[in-house]
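[audit] Reproducing an earlier prediction to check determinism. Same input, same settings, fresh worker. If the tokens differ from the archived copy the diff job will pick it up downstream; this log only records the rerun itself.
[audit] input (171 residues):
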Amino acid sequence: MDKIFYVLAALTLITAFMVVISRHPIRSVLFLVATFFLISAQYILLNAQFLALVNIIVYAGAIMVLFLFVIMFLNLSRDLERFSSWMPIAAAGISIGGIGLLLLSAFRVAQTNVEYTGNPEAGLVEQIGEVLYRDFLFPMEVCSVLFLVAMIGIVLLNRKERELPSKIPLS
């Protein structure tokens, strides 16, 4: 189980790093989606299935669609100039390799004996749903109305004014 966590953590760090260094905005968004999926996999390892599901639906789904909409709306997908030399790429590779070796040596030295004493069903959707709809029903309804008003506002803001045809002179 620890090896799976370390592999997921390494992949998460790599994709998060690629979000930052990617020169193309669409690729950056796609790396961010991959980062969210990897974080959801780590939530599943922690037995928090609800958080994993919400992370995929809300962040990887809705927020990324919004980011793509903004990128395409602002026309940020034009090609940017490439690196002028290989020196920055070599420096980044050496830095990543050095940090990787440092982390690997730190993980080999560290002893991790963690005992799990909590409730094994703590992150399940059923228990969280019971708490949300039993104890927090009113705030959930307020949030749903807020989301509905936001969606209506977005539709109204993006609606283009229809031009009326000009009057054709009858002569």
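[audit] rerun output stored. Observation attached for the diff report: The chain has a mean pLDDT of 76.
[audit] end
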